[in-house]
Amino acid sequence: MTSVPSAGAVREAGADVTLSPAKRALLARLRHRSVPQPDGPAVLRPGAGRPGLVLVHPVGGAVLCYAALVSALGGDEPVWGFAADRPADDLPDAGRLAGLAERYLATLDLAERRWVFAGWSFGGVVAYEMARRAGGTAVLLDTAYPGSDPPEDEAAIRRFFLHDLCRTAGLPPPEPAAGAGGTEPGVADLAARAGLTADLTAAEIEARYRVCRSNALALAAHRPGRYEGPVWYVRAGRSPDHGPAWRQVAPDLRTRSLPGEDHYTLLGAGPVGAVAAVVREALRRADRGE
User: Fold this and answer.
1) Could you say which residues of the chain have pLDDT below 50?
2) In terms of residue numbers, what domain contains 257?
3) Does some domain include residue 38?
4) Using one digit for the tens of pLDDT, what is the confidence trace for 84-97?
5) How far apart are CA 165 and CA 172, in angstroms?
């Protein structure tokens, strides 16, 4: 559910060699982005077409996970990305996710164009809430229905964070291990055991964890409201099917499934073309008001 580190979390020296060409190109744009306000979007791809596409960060807060998707989209619609470089601890857990949606919408000129809001995993829930409030189209990329798998406790969030970070980096998570005196080691120590410290410092890992924890708690407390507008649900074939749950609140749900893919391969080089085709269809139909 998280992505690889954002521009603020990738070390300047040495990290780029481990990234794909698409991610290196996107990272270069992010490093030189001009954000008019702290919660404003980064331009992932400039364009003059309509409508506009907004991609919302997954639970880890970064947007490099969308690099291959942006490259595969084609067309000339502009693409913006919302990243989270700090936890939203100023918002209460119960209203935090809706507050993020409102905060991000406040930085967009909603009267300028039609909008498509998309996100992978946690990002899809925020995108859905943005579409509800703005009257746009939502695209949920393998997005579980909120509350379907809440974290049990702090240790569960830590285990999830490490699992997520490892899977997005293409590494297996380390086996659970206790620290000195039987205590659980910190996330930076766990990440070091998993081999993740080549591209991230301990401080960067802890910062990523704080963002992940904030978003995980927001997701667990959130319950989506009903939306009658268009919602697309793209499911990785090996993921649980949350379509029926989403349809309870989004009756105009349009579903697609990619057999053989799991949550962490959905945006990979192989299936991303099929994902991009769904997003393009959503853009075309949004432009026609469908």
Assistant:
1) 1-18, 31-32, 34-36, 178-183
2) 7-33+45-149+215-287
3) no
4) 988 988 888 789 99
5) 10
Residue 51: which CATH number? 3.40.50.1820
Quick check: pTM over 0.70? Answer: yes
pLDDT in tens, 45-86: 999 888 999 999 999 998 989 999 999 999 899 999 999 988
Cβ neighbors of 3 (< 8 A, separation 6 or more) are 57, 58, 60, 61, 62, 63, 64, 65, 66, 120, 168
Sequence letter at residue 173: P
Give Cα separations from 16 to 10, 11, 126, 154 (angstroms). 8, 8, 29, 32
Residue in the structure block whose two tokens are 């591209």: 199
Whether the CA torsion 16, 20, 26, 30 is positive or negative: it is: negative
Of 115, 118, 119, the C-alpha closest to 135 is 115
Residue with tokens 């291959």: 68
Whole-number Å distance between alpha carbons of 2 and 98: 19
* Residues with Cβ within 8 Å of residue 68, at least 6 apart in sequence: 20, 22, 23, 267, 268, 269, 272
- Helix H or strand E segment including 119: strand 115-120
Asked whether residue 27 is assigned to any structural domain, the reply reads yes
Helix (H, G, I), strand (E, B) or coil at 238: coil
What's the domain count of the chain?
1
Phi first, then psi: give them for residue 73, nearest 5 degrees: -65, -40
Task: Give the separation between CA 188 and CA 280, rounded to whole angstroms.
Answer: 39
Q: Which residues contact 203 (CB under 8 A, 6 or more apart)?
A: none
Domain presence at residue 172: no
* SS3 at position 66: helix
What distance in Å separates the CA atoms of residue 131 and residue 41, rounded to the nearest whole number? 16
